[in-house]
């Protein structure tokens, strides 16, 4: 699914246009953000692509929603 990651001050958020959903990112697996999962305030876990640490925000990426510890693409 397409997800836009942006920074507002020191906080990160994710916007999912297909769901018209914007949530703060409350946990990141990797300090550099990319190549691991993030957890949104609503409980969603998203697997982000492996991008360079200096990738400028905001950026729209193809992320996968993690369901039951398996990465699956959102189909709805």
Automatic annotation (TrEMBL):
InterPro entries in UniProt: NifT, NifT/FixU_barrel-like_dom_sf
Pfam families: NifT (PF06988)
Superkingdom of the source species: Bacteria
Protein name: Nitrogen fixation protein NifT
Species assigned in the record: Sinorhizobium kostiense
């Amino acid at each position: 699914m397409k997800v836009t990651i942006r920074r507002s001050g020191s906080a990160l958020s994710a916007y999912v246009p297909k769901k018209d959903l914007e949530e703060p990112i409350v946990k990141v697996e990797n300090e550099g953000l990319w190549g691991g999962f993030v957890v949104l305030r609503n409980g969603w876990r998203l697997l982000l692509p492996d991008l360079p640490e200096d990738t400028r925000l905001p950026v729209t990426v193809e992320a996968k929603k993690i369901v039951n510890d398996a990465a699956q693409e959102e189909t709805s």
